[in-house]
Amino acid sequence: DEIFPHESGNVGFLSQSGSHAFRVITRGGARGLRFSKVISYGNAMDLNEADLLTHFAEDPDTEVIAAYIEGVRDGRRFFEALRLAAARKPVVILKGGRTAAGRTAAASHTAALASEQAVWQAAVRQAGALEVSSLNELVDMVVALTLAGPAKGSSVGVLGGAGGDSVETADICHEAGLDVAPLPQDLREALREKLPHTWDWIGNPVDGSILGWGRFEALEVTQLMAANPAYDLVLINARSLEHMLNQEDGEKLFGEAIDILKNLGKESGKAIMVVMGEPEFRDERRWKAAMDAREGLAAAGVAIYSDIGTAARAMGRYVRYTAKRQERAASAASA
Question: Shortest CA distance to 110 belongs to which of 26, 27, 48?
């Protein structure tokens, strides 16, 4: 089918719902995810969640595991399979039937016996997997784990948009557990040489309106932040770049800016997330340019998100989950 990606990839997804399997493929595929296998196992009369988790743990083509589960057949066997899988690879799980209403729906959907939420959460946490609360959040976290790049800490450099957007972005990032660190002195000195008229106004997040709408300066500052060891992560609100399209040669400038974003993660070796949702401009020319850019970023393997809040929360959880996995691996190695 044309709506499915044709290339294989490194994400394995097991789902107790065929419709959820379809949505993860289409939503994830549009954001650059590619799959080793997607398995919809329904009422688990033959193969169940423990069998499939064990398979994905041992599958050389699968590097990240995602799961939608409504109920488990054998709690002890499921926990052992989940612990095995999470020790080897990142595992993201969405539980169906977390509430009384959900448990009733799960019973009629797949005859699953949905477990009590507190017991489930404790088991998932102890096994080392990452629990999410919606299908969109599952896709967000798999995008982070698969495409964002290495997360070595929580210090983030941000291209935050303009004015109030920058202020709101700083708040959202802080609330997500990220450290919006001030510009270090060596970076400020570099800005003094590059932007002598505005350097002292520039901070983190970078306020694009200070540097002028539709200009490259904000992106150049972001490149400097990505190259600076003071920052572990970079979060880019690419919506501010859409203003380049207002200029006479806007499509060319905008295309060049998007090309820089495509390569920023590879060049910096850091975790990069780009915010590029639906364009705020509604005329056909600018709408098409922005949507083409979004598709191009996804095709280039860039972790893209629809809004700053979603990206910041995903980045915060990604950093914490990666750190916990590293702690577990170190503890296991020293045992």
Answer: 48
- Chain segment 181-234, per-residue pLDDT in tens: 999 999 999 999 988 888 888 999 988 777 665 567 888 889 999 999 999 999
Q: Which of 106, 127, 147 is the last residue of a domain?
A: 147
- The CATH number given to whatever domain includes residue 134 is 3.40.50.261
Residue 305 CA from chain centroid, whole number: 7
pLDDT of res. 110: 47
Contact 38, 32 (CB under 8 A): no
* Sheet containing strand 91-95, strands side by side: 35-40, 8-15, 64-69, 91-95, 130-132
What's the pLDDT tens digit per position in 45-58? 789 999 999 999 99
Report yes or no: 208 and 161 within 8 Å, Cβ to Cβ. yes
Do you know the residue count of the chain? 335
Structural domain count, the chain: 2
Q: CA dist 159 to 194, 211, 229, Å?
A: 17, 12, 17
Domain boundary among 130, 147, 164: 147
Residue 48 lies in domain: 8-147
